[in-house]
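Q: Could you fold this chain for me?
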Amino acid sequence: MGRLTLVATAFGEGASTGRVLLAGTASLLMCVFLSPKFIEFLRHREFGQNIREEGPQGHKTKAGTPTMGGIIIFAAIAVPFLLLSKRSWEAMGVFGVALLCALLGFADDYMKIVRRRSLGLRARTKLVVTIAISLGLWWVATQKAGLPDSVRLRFVDVSVDLGPFYPVLIYLVVAGTTTAVNFTDGLDGLAAGCAAIVLLAYLGITFITGQSDLAVLAGCFVGSCIGFLWFNSFPASIFMGDTGSLGLGGAIAGFAVMTDTEVLLILLGGIFVIEVLSVVIQVVSFQLFRKRVFLMAPIHHHFELQAWSETKIILRFWIVASACAAIGFTVFHQSVK
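A: Sure. Below is the predicted structure, expressed as structure tokens.
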């Protein structure tokens, strides 16, 4: 990896585009070349996926597929990022949040594997840890990165000072995003592909804002997600598990905070919002009226039960994710003119 550092230095101080390309490519290649051995290791250890009994019956065939692929995703991100970045507070804050969320997911995955069932950590434990992570992100954003305690409404170009309620907003962003990506991780390649699309939008946003270190980190995330898709696409050889879904959700939340796009994230990550809303609608409808709006929630399972093929659902959800991210990016671009 010493050669990697020398190559990065050769690009020069102002060559942020070169650093981003190098970092993203390195993450992609690391993920592609390290994954086969990692998959073999997981199979040898019998670290396989446990399938929920209430899930679609077609998923029973996926039981035992190696999981915790988020480990390889973050390994492929960490090395190029730490070598090629200047380790600014903004970038380290996002990386730290993503890594801590991934560790929370790892603990959850490990508990599932040890207990041989689809339940992991207690909800209370996840809540406490998520609050602690959110407070850490708030401290870095305001005390080290110098961000104000405000939220930007880019549709109307207005900033609202939240004061002491700003940490609450950050918690809602972190908890909501990690949950949303976790809900989306129900089909082969669905979460990884959607996350790559949203993170690619953030790569563009960080270029516009001139946050070069964040751009390097975004490039690493995009590259690693694409590399992971080589093995996670249908039919998947490995699942990312909660290690990956919570980690990627934490990364997206971190980018939203550090780029002042917490509200715009609703549009940028529109596909994740749709997945969460489908669960909320299903639960509320059943609790109030004892009727289900969808055949099963999250909504990608609804289409499964309507006899859509898994690849059709995944591709169409990627299309929706791309449209949402593109519109969100356009709104951001217009707001900075």
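A (continued): The first strand starts at residue 150 and ends at 153.
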